[in-house]
Amino acid sequence: MHRSYDGISGTQVTDRPQQNPSVEPQHPSAIASDDLLKGRRQVWIDHDGTLYCLKATSNGRLYLTK
């Protein structure tokens, strides 16, 4: 593993180790946006009694609004 310093703040920078395919993903509870939207442009999410709207834009971005 290569270690260096960023030269500005003196913070040590470490190269990331190569991914090991047998290791579980860092966020195993992540949900794909396709699984939430299921082909729709927007879905409503009830979170503790407050409604939120999750919208997918034509350029692939997601917006969450109250």
Describe this structure as you would to a colleague.
The protein has one helix spanning 33-37; strands at 3-5, 12-14, 42-47, 50-56, 62-65. The protein has a domain at 34-66: Complement Module, domain 1 (Ribbon). It has one helix and five strands, in the order ββαβββ. With 66 residues, it is mainly beta. The mean pLDDT is 79. The strands form two sheets. The chain has a three-stranded antiparallel beta sheet with strand order 3-4-5, with no helix packed on it. Strands 1-2 form a two-stranded antiparallel sheet. A hairpin with a 6-residue loop joins strand 1 and strand 2. The longest helix has 5 residues, at 33-37. It comes from Blastopirellula marina. It holds the Pfam family hemP. Residues 9-23 have a biased composition (Polar residues). This is Hemin uptake protein HemP. Residues 1-33 are annotated as: Disordered.
